[in-house]
Amino acid sequence: MSRKPVPLKIAIKIASLRIALLSKLAFTSLRDGDEDLAKRYIRLIRRISQRVNISIPKELLFCKKCNIPLITGNNCRVRLNTNRIKITCLSCSSIKRFSYSER
Ligand SMILES: [Zn+2]
């Protein structure tokens, strides 16, 4: 028995809805203090986006190494260098950089 594949247009629609919902859940669970649950939600978001090949929205900041959602002033440090933004994850101290022009 094989599953009938879902048309790509519908799959993308479902995926983007799920990503929006999961990112909301990730941030609320992190605020409530459940780090593991928040990490799990981010892992699911990354898996969904890989599966249907869509990009994760730029508003959703997370650490690529430990999958934790990043909240400025709470669990990440933001520093500005010459035309670069540097975001440091405070739980695993990995650094994410981007240029001003990119955002
Ligand atoms: Zn991290």
What value does the average pLDDT take?
91
Structural class of the secondary elements?
A: alpha+beta
Number of strands: 3
Numbering strands along the chain, what is their spatial order in the largest sheet?
1-2-3
The tally of structural domains comes to 1
Detail the poorly predicted runs. none
Strand percentage lies at 15-25%
Task: Describe what you observe in this structure.
The chain has about 100 residues and is an alpha+beta fold. The chain has one domain. Helix 1 packs antiparallel against helix 2. It is globular, with a radius of gyration of 16 Å. The termini are far apart. Bound molecules: zinc ion. Zinc ion binds next to loops.
Write a brief structural summary.
With 103 residues, the chain is an alpha+beta fold. It has helices at 8-31, 35-52, and strands at residues 76-81, 84-89, 95-99. Zinc ion is lined by residues 63, 65-66, 68, 89, 91-92, 94.
